Amino acid sequence: VRYCEGKHDKFGWNFNGSSHLEELKIILDEMVMIRRLKCNVLEQLPAKIRQVITLSPELIDSKNKTLKAFEKKLVEVGVKGTERRSTLLAYFSETGRVKIRAICEHVEQLLEQGRKFLLFAHHREVLDAVCDLLENSKTYYIRIDGSVSSEDRKSVCDQFQEEEKFRVAVLSITAANTGVTLTAAQLVVFAELFWNPGELIQAEDRAHRIGQKGSVLVHYLLAKRTADDQLWPLVQSKLNVLNQAGLSKDSEINVSNVTAQGKSQTTIMSFFSQMDDDVDDNDLANLMDELEGVPEKKKKYM
């Protein structure tokens, strides 16, 4: 209770907050925690720089009626349990959908610049749209999502690492954020966000790891008046809690571009903050398959 900002509300005890973090850090350091942080162990690793890219409003359908309907439903009194989770995921999914045009424009700009990069997204529709763009432009790329076996992952990673012609790695945030090394790229692009900053940091480190010879630039593509308004401040908040408790020394992310404002925004942000407790990986995969309602697209490697 003392360290989780425990409070009793109409639903019972709520332990989703954080409090007395400096005291908690001292206790952990003195009694139980031996932690080797990456910044201390790998002191010679080049820098990692994060940059917020606010997508062009002209390419974002922020007035999308479906998006607004999900947002309105989430702040209605009485929406909870499975209904709230499914609505939240639908809102998250629709955000990815309305960002596709702007994401593809950003990818086109990077291709024109001759960059080699990793692109992370969460929803199949976003991954497919980027792959379609790359195929139409005759760009060599690899794709790793939940359908790719561990054996195939090694093969396609080797292609990206060793063959200059492979320009882009299209990756699932949750399926490709561990177990792969892609240090041939010095640019990482997040087309979508996720409510757990640990997943994002692990994804960043597919390029920022031993073997990387240069600084790594990370682009976070954000769209105003979408779920990004709640997810981005949440990512910063959770990362700050980890830093204060001594569980991470990752640099802060500037959230000045997109912030949660007003009661409804704060309410939805709090719902996203509970997603790790409410939904496990299998539930998430099943719910997203139901929401997207499309068969698995055959993966193509050019």
UniProtKB/TrEMBL annotation:
Cross-referenced SMART domains: HELICc (SM00490)
GO BP annotations listed: DNA repair; replication fork processing
Transmembrane intervals: none
Domain (Helicase C-terminal): residue spans on this chain: 102-259
Keyword Hydrolase: yes
Annotated GO CC locations: nuclear replication fork
Any Pfam family matching the protein: Helicase_C
Single GO MF descriptor: hydrolase activity
Keywords: Hydrolase
Name of the protein in question: Putative chromatin remodeling protein
Organism whose genome encodes this protein: Rhodnius neglectus
Higher taxonomy: Eukaryota, Metazoa, Ecdysozoa, Arthropoda, Hexapoda
